[in-house]
Design goal:
It holds the Pfam family LutB_C. It comes from Nibrella saemangeumensis. Keywords: 4Fe-4S, Electron transport, Iron, Iron-sulfur, Metal-binding, Repeat, Transport. InterPro entries: 4Fe4S_Fe-S-bd, 4Fe4S_Fe_S_CS, FTHF_cligase-like_sf, Helical_ferredxn, LUD_dom, LutB/LldF, LutB_C, NagB/RpiA_transferase-like. This is Lactate utilization protein B. With 481 residues, the protein is an alpha/beta fold. 50% of the residues lie in helices and 10% in strands. It has 22 helices and ten strands. The strands form two sheets. The chain has a six-stranded parallel beta sheet, sandwiched between helices. Strands 8-5-6-9 form a four-stranded mixed beta sheet. A hairpin with a 4-residue loop joins strand 5 and strand 6. The site of iron/sulfur cluster has 15 residues, from helix 14.
Length: 481
């Protein structure tokens, strides 16, 4: 797997070098955002649904312990073996031990961001297990040895021509073939053979119903169902926050998920799994992996309401322009930038700063997570804990001093105007990241305060002698210093 060791600004800089890709990536995601808008507007009770979903999830987070035990008891009653994993290592060991006991060396997987978080594929492959991702987007990413760049659209950053080349190299499609329908048919044929010959499958979980001990997996390709119906051993991995209390709550979440994610009224397959068929084994692994720690952070616990619809990514101007891989984390975008520092604050200290804090993410979130507020909170925590970059800390200290009194503010303004007028290269140089993409404005000769004081003293009647900027009407100064 390609590893990404640079931080978000450096990786984003690489992504935007390809202007054409940046533009269509931006456009494609905005198109999905618009589809989401249209789909949500068709439901008059949309806001009520969001509200209900958010409240149900609040209830789940406040009573997680009880719901998990209820879910576990019902799973066991239904004949499903339950495992608990504190972290990725434990999760991966459990999967491997299940396969080893049955002497299974091949596994087919449907989309599961949790197993991406756990790096399960790498773990199993190192131990001689052949793993194939059966979700088409994830399959493409796996062939290209790259992680998913989006939780719903794993290869959204790739052109169809690039996918054609990957397929030509790995599954022998004709050279130059890039028609999406043809490529999909090739992949389907190839994967069908995989489904028919694998004895074990692993799926993710979208919703786990505590009162019945069943779980629901949503896909558009039916790949989870193919794997589950044809396998002798079915494994499901879920984060402990995926619980919902009752089956009647499913309708709320299923309506929100598809519309928010892709603008569809519902995902093509919403499959319920409740008990093994005759001769089949079913295992469910409940994974913590930092979730209880996040639950213990009052400012961030609401992030565990996330149903992984991807809407916050599709609307985020930073995500759309910088690409998902620039977040160097399994879950990218605004929600990833809240979840990742909980796992490793030092490694992910850059991510909460990859946002304009415009609030668009919070506006579209179907479970009403105040995403931009949490990003802002994380910035404060990261600075307080000493993980912010030195340049950022120095810059903020300088700004705090500047804004601490009228005297320092006026002095800093004077100094900045003098530098811009006399040695502009001190600010307009390649070391200044802002200057790389922007022209600095010409500096005004005086501040608004100076201009105002001068006009007040020169005449209390005639104020029409022009402002501090040539051609500026006197009542519309644009320098807000
Ligand atoms: S945070 Fe909200 S909008 Fe973003 S993926 Fe999760 S549920 Fe969807």
């Amino acid at each position: 797997m390609k590893t990404l060791t640079k931080d978000h600004p450096a990786l984003a800089e690489e992504f935007i070098k390809d202007e054409e890709r940046t533009d269509w990536h931006d456009g494609a995601l905005w198109w999905i955002r618009q589809k989401r808008d249209m789909a949500s507007k068709q439901i008059p009770e949309w806001e009520a649904l969001r509200d209900a979903a958010s409240r149900i999830k609040s209830n789940v987070l406040s009573n997680l312990h009880d719901y998990l035990l209820e879910f576990e008891a019902n799973l066991i009653k239904n004949g499903i073996t339950v495992h608990w994993a504190a972290d990725a290592e434990e999760h991966n060991q459990i999967v491997y031990s299940i396969l080893k006991e049955k002497e299974i060396t091949q596994l087919v997987k449907s989309k599961s961001m949790l197993t991406e978080e756990c790096h399960l594929n790498e773990y199993l492959i190192e131990r001689g297990v052949d793993v194939i991702n059966s979700d088409l987007g994830e399959y493409i990413q796996q062939l290209d040895n790259e992680p998913p760049s989006h939780i719903v659209l794993p290869c959204i950053h790739k052109r169809k021509e690039e996918i054609g080349e990957i397929f030509h190299e790995h599954i022998g499609t004709p050279k130059g073939e890039s028609d999406p329908t043809t490529l999909t048919r090739f992949a389907r044929r190839h994967l069908r053979n995989v489904f028919m010959t694998r004895r074990a499958t692993l799926t993710g979980v979208n919703f786990a119903v505590a009162e019945t001990g069943e779980y629901v997996v949503c896909t558009n390709e039916g790949n989870a169902d193919m794997g589950a119906h044809l396998s002798d051993v079915q494994i499901a991995s879920m984060g402990i926050e995926k619980i919902i209390p009752q089956k009647q709550h499913l309708g709320i979440f299923l309506r929100l998920l598809a519309r928010s994610g892709t603008g569809q009224p519902i995902t093509i397959y919403s499959s319920h799994f409740k008990k093994p068929r005759k001769g089949q084994e079913m295992h469910l692994i409940l994974v913590d992996m930092g979730r209880t720690r996040q639950l213990g952070r009052p400012d961030f616990r609401d992030s565990l309401k996330c149903i992984r619809c991807g809407a916050c990514m599709n609307t985020c101007p930073v995500y759309r322009k910088s690409g998902g891989l620039s977040y160097h984390n399994t879950i990218a975008g605004p929600i990833g930038a809240i979840l990742a520092p909980n796992l490793d604050m030092q490694k992910h200290a850059d991510l909460p700063f990859a946002s304009t804090l415009c609030g668009s993410c919070s506006n579209v979130c179907p479970v009403k997570i105040p995403i931009h507020e949490q990003l802002y909170k994380w910035r404060q925590v990261i600075v307080q804990e000493g993980y912010a970059a030195n340049t950022k800390v120095l810059g903020m200290k300088a700004m705090a001093w500047t804004l601490s009194s009228p005297a320092s503010y006026l002095t800093a303004g004077k100094a900045a105007r003098w530098v811009l007028n006399n040695i502009p290269v001190a600010i307009n140089n390649k070391l200044n990241p802002w200057y790389k993409q922007r022209d600095m404005p010409d500096s005004p000769k005086e501040s608004f305060g100076e201009w105002y004081a001068r006009n007040q003293s020169s005449s209390s009647v005639n104020h029409r002698d022009g402002g501090p900027f040539t051609n500026e009407p006197v009542n519309q100064p644009t320098n807000h210093e």
